[in-house]
């Protein structure tokens, strides 16, 4: 059973090796001089004004939280969808109620304006 | 070829075969993917050039066919610059984190009935996990660069990818309900038959949503605010140069190939022929057109790749708030409603799926 997953492990290591190979080839062939101006962060020709790690809008954080809720919901739907023809009407109804609760939550956050960007 | 393999297998110790066979398949697939990505760049430039009434690249090799190889050589002899304020370790890890999931996702994708690297039962779950991973590459690149453009690009694209991933996941749930399996090979088998048997008809809204979310996931036009040239220069990879940039570039094009292939497999019957089961072609000289073949998959994938470029040449870039609105307020409700509709169709026994 777990045997089937061995090729994935091999693939991940080959992909890692390929990425490292590409990076090291770049360091090997791409030699150049390093000047202060070249190594400073790009800011349209200015010297950078301040550190780039500035505070950012809290909405991005909100989107991340909403994402977790919905992604979990999808993870719950996966096994249900696969076994759909074994669980009968009761199973479909149960998931219908679950989805209904989540849709109510979705409508609530919509009305509260959590999805607005202006 | 078979003789060569027999000799090779006799020569190798028996325990090593389970490592050697997948390894050889992986190398074949990787070579195909990298060449595919190289020619995809050329294809994109040519398609867009013709849509703009230009000729496009035509200097390197016959009719410009070797343009991408010249670009690769150029990128590799450029200096890799690590900015002085950057977090050096994360800065160099980020391209790897976007390349590895883009490549490794191909492990579970069948290209015809027999060619698959890892035939696992949890195929789609694995795909969902790996496509989520590509957000890390983007956000780490933006944060580690310590540059304002990179940071803004990373924040934007992380929020965008996360939002469209939900629509994508719901569309996958719809496919699972119709296909009854997480294994992509079984999903294609569930669509066996001609063009009218494929899932794009009963799942049309999901097909649409999936492809649009795929474009947004890969940060392509018209959703490319992550790297909108006119606003934030190049977004999350503004500080990357040379080989590190080449890795991001390769990952982006491999991801496009992945989205196009997945859309073909899940909604357009994968390697099934358009004419399978057609009465008109039966017993004629064109009967070979009814056979399933990897070439049919190639035709479908090429169509979706062309659509990527077609959209890029046709539409202006979306504004950021419009992108988020489209994702949350249009695509997600459509998918939730269609899952409900599918449930009702299931109960009423309408549609291609079977109730046991």
- What is the CATH homologous superfamily assignment of the largest domain in chain A? NADH:ubiquinone/plastoquinone oxidoreductase, chain 3
Strand content of chain A: under 5%
Count helical runs of chain B.
12
Helicity level of chain A, as a percent range?
55-70%
Low-confidence stretches of chain B: none
Which overall shape of chain B is indicated by the principal axes computed on the Cα atoms? globular
Rg calc of chain A: 25 Å
Q: How would a textbook summarize the main sheet of chain A?
A: none
Helix-strand string of chain A: HHHH
Tell me, what's the shape of chain A? flat
Contiguous low-pLDDT stretches of chain A (5 residues minimum) are none
What's the quaternary structure here?
A: heterodimer
Query: What is the name of the CATH architecture of the largest domain in chain A?
Result: Up-down Bundle
Q: pLDDT average of chain B, as an integer?
A: 84
In whole angstroms, how far apart are the ends of chain B? 44 Å
Which structural class do you get from the secondary structure elements of chain B? mainly alpha
Distance between the termini of chain A: 51 Å
Short overview:
By secondary structure, chain A is mostly helical.
Structural notes for this entry:
The complex is a heterodimer of chains A (118) and B (356). With 118 residues, chain A is mostly helical. Chain A has two domains: 1-29; 55-118, Methane Monooxygenase Hydroxylase, Chain G, domain 1 (Up-down Bundle), CATH 1.20.58.1610. In chain A, 69% of the residues lie in helices and 0% in strands. Chain A has four helices and no strands. Chain B has 356 residues and is mainly alpha-helical. Helices cover 64% and strands 0% of the residues of chain B. Chain B contains twelve helices and no strands. In chain B, α6 (148-179) crosses α7. The longest helix of chain B has 35 residues, at 17-51. The termini of chain B are far apart. In chain B, 50% of the residues are buried. The chains are: A mainly alpha (118), B mainly alpha (356). At the A-B interface, α1, α2, α3 and α4 of A face α2, α4, α5, α6 and α10 of B.
